[in-house]
Amino acid sequence: MHLLDVRDHYAAAAAERLVAQPVPADDPFFTPLSRAQVADLFDTVPRPERPEPDGVLVVFGPGAALCGPDVLWYADLPKRYAEAAVSKGELPVGVNLGRPGEPGDLVRLFYTDWPVLDRHRDAIVGRVDRWIDLRDTATPAALDGTALRGTLAHLARGPVRTRPYFNSTPWGGQWAASELGFTPRAGNTALGYELIAPEAGVLVGEKGGAQVELPFQLLCVEHPEDLLGADVHRRFGTSFPIRFDYLDTMGGGNLSLHLHPREQYMREVFGWPYTQHETYYVTAAEEDAQVLLGLTEEADLEIMRRQVEDAIAHGTPMPVEDHVQAHPATVGQLFMIPAGTPHASGAGNLVLEVSATPYLYSLRFYDWLRKDAAGASRPLPYQHGFANLDTARRGADVTKDLIQQPRTLRAGEGWREEVIGALPEMFYAVHRLVVASGADASDDTAGRFHILNVAAGQGAVIETRDGRTHSLAFAETITIPAAVGPYRVRALGDHEVRIVKALVVEP
Q: What is the pTM of this model?
């Protein structure tokens, strides 16, 4: 057997070719998502000589699939492992694509390496002969290509739950550790990844037996109309456009004061075709907890800018509530956060973010003078923030538009569906199913996927017309593909169950 490592054949400028140029060119905070291809790693893709009839040549490394193999195996490592390795500088996993021997960095990983490799993976998955899951390199698990594609087809037509995990940050809390039993990796359970499509995985296999984790994104690539629905597919391509995640500040601190890019800026400067609208649903809160949202009526942007700059340059505390409103964090309340709106979840909250999928562009103004473990301040790209600040919606309009009261959309015996958040500028709406103990609610995807999260109560059972059932416990999230059509939601336990639901609405 002979080996060929394609990384030895990368062009000298391979790493530089992949990186998209920032706008402006000297931006130290962000780069746009790379549009490069894996083929750009090479001046010429290697074309090794075929072995003798009884010989074997193993070609490996990112880009090996371009070499015309007779048999194609894909070795995958879920993204959370790569992120952890890059953060720790662990080689060989924590490297830059195009520079195999050098430690990577998170900016390059998020904005360059992952987009390039995802594009390559999505292009070749239809001809993969074996998918290998390398979460445990000592005992890797695998699916052959036929089983892989059959599994994806099955998952895309029934309720599917992605694997959750939590990351830690300086502001993180302890709710997921105390209530759900997650073990914090670095002291807290700040960010709960329920469904963030570019990083999400689905576990398949037997409980307690061999399991393979498959990227959720492959469902969108291989079966976009089944998963997304025809209208959503036409609008968003194979991008799954809504995410669900938790922000845990119970026993932690305030999030940074920040906003997200408005749509044109997101396209032209950062390269995403749609922008990062968000909402916060308060799942749990300590007494007197708050959510910061929207400009005050009296906010003076020149003073605000000077105070942001003073905080960065001199460590001067910023009087945030002079500029941004503070609202009680009432359990069950949804806060709408369209792009351009300054906001932050305060300490003492468990917030379910029901948001557009883009998640890499938080334009921060102020981070409460916090330092990280190395004693450094968090980067604050406030100039991007001021360039995107929506100055028109302020004062009473914030409460009227962004803190909406539930309105009943439809109802049946023992249940109702409420609209709890919708805005003309946002492409999705947030509803809530309220189901009494022992009751069940009927629903229908009507050609558009739904996402459900049990926000209060013991849990629920999802039942589809083809006989599939899926139990969902408190705080868990599930995707109902468009292909499901009619389904029922049955409440579990002795108390009312409340289920947050999100869907793409017609433009």
A: 0.95
